[in-house]
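Retro notes
What went well: the complex prediction finally ran end to end.
Inputs used:
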Amino acid sequence: MALYDMSHTAIMKQFPLTEPVLLILLSLAGQPQHGYAILKDVERMSSGRVLLSTGTLYGALRRLLDDDWIERFEEKETSRGRQAYRLTPQGRRNLQLEIDRMKHITRLATLRVATKES
Amino acid sequence: MLAAYRKLLRLYPAEHRKLFGEEMLAVLAEEHDENAGRKLIVRGSIFLRETSGLLAGAVHEHFRSFTEIHDELSFVTGRFAMRNGFRFPKVTIVFMLLILGGVLTAIKKGQDIASSVPDVNPPLPVHIQSVHSILLGGMPLFFAFFYAAGLIGWGVMFAMRRSGVHRLDQVAGDKQPNH
């Protein structure tokens, strides 16, 4: 876990997020998930286009944990006591920033393309 | 398949295995169980994807642990975390000997300069001036040389994972099993 709060510049350097990382964060935005559920959710959200391997997933989770975007906890509800992941407030804020950035690009692209066509 | 995955997981750094090893194996087992009834070609492609993912992940994690600037010793943030369980790594002795060598060499150099100045009373102003200029010019060079030697030495020890940083990291990992 990061020992210090990341500066705005340091956070902005991480954008744009890669598609797998964005999908992992979106998967955790709704509810906490464990590893396999994230894999399946990413596959579902991307209509089977993004197929993460376990190695790739845990590499991304590791970085997100280190940057304090997500946190790890033990699921109490299940008998096996699996480790699950959820977004931290900082992670949610950063995800929102990325969504706003994408919205801006989409708006801009729509305008430009429409101007070109007319 | 699971035996192969288990073997591939051994390629990861120990610290990563300790933190995620069991969990990754559980995910792989879950995936294996769910796809057990599917066609061989599908299972084969999943196996290939997982194998390449584990191999790439292991390389990436080794690279990350090799190049990572640890927060505990970060020159960028200027934070140097102190721990109660502070250990005295063996490599510190090497650095202390290196510094001692530097100090002894500087003393020897000073003595040489002193002996080269004629013992005239009162001393000649020209000679005194030259001794001062030699000292002022030489000392920063000495410090720079030994500082650079120390940094290179530390870099080599860090690359060999003998600098003590990785061991301290493990100590931190033992205290914080969950993030």
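What we learned: The domain at 17-117 of chain A is CATH 1.10.10.10 (Arc Repressor Mutant, subunit A).
What to try next: split runs per interface for comparison.
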